[in-house]
Amino acid sequence: MLLTVDNLHVAYGGVHALQGVSLSVAPGEIVTLIGSNGAGKTTLLRAISGLVRPTAGTIVFDRTVRLDQIPPHTIVREGISHVPEGRQVFGNLTVRENLELGAYQRTNRTEIRATMQRVFDLFPILSERLRQAAATLSGGEQQMLAIGSCCSTSRRSASPRWWCRRSSPSSARSMRRGRRSCWSSRTPTWRCAWRSAAT
């Protein structure tokens, strides 16, 4: 398995947000979590990304890396990226600058250019908006940019081995117009999805 979450518990003070959550993701597999507000979807994503620490359980990446024991910046270097709800791009920076910021931990310019080309292959509209401020993009285009920035973080390959995202149906519909195969949402619910690249 590429990712294994086993019996995970997370608490915020006296509030037990996750209780005994387990899941696994194989290389090349897509796993989707669907639930109502407050069900713990965001908390699970934050735990995988290292933004909150579990009180019990384990998160293992690539069979050997204990994500529950390392800081977020190290998790990013492992090739794991998190696209939060709300996109959170740098609105005053251009599309190109946002993508370059995603690669701030990388030094090989050739690999970074190859990654950016992959992003443009996934989302061609971004290549037409390189000099445009991110704040002026549509919601769906900002979501594409947020995912593209995540793709830029991985130093192991020209694409991330793993990324997770949270989205609403409205941004999903806009993204489908940019890249039809990227996302599908037909019901009015929040969805969390993970995409893992085969190694």
List the topology elements.
Blueprint: E1 3-12, E2 15-25, E3 30-34, H1 41-48, E4 56-61, E5 65-66, H2 72-77, E6 80-83, H3 95-102, H4 109-122, H5 124-127, H6 139-151, E7 162-167, H7 169-178, E8 191-196
Helix pairs in contact: 3-6, 6-7
CATH architecture annotation name: 3-Layer(aba) Sandwich
- Measured between the Cα atoms of the first and last residue, the distance is 11 Å
Beta content: 25-35%
Might you state the CATH topology name? Answer: Rossmann fold
The succession of helices and strands, N to C, reads EEEHEEHEHHHHEHE
The radius of gyration computed from the alpha-carbon positions, rounded to a whole number of angstroms, is 17 Å
Sequence of strands across the biggest β-sheet: 2-1-4-5
Mean pLDDT, to the nearest integer, reads: 78
Give the name of the CATH superfamily.
P-loop containing nucleotide triphosphate hydrolases
| Helical fraction | 25-40%
Q: Helical element count? A: 7
Shape field: globular
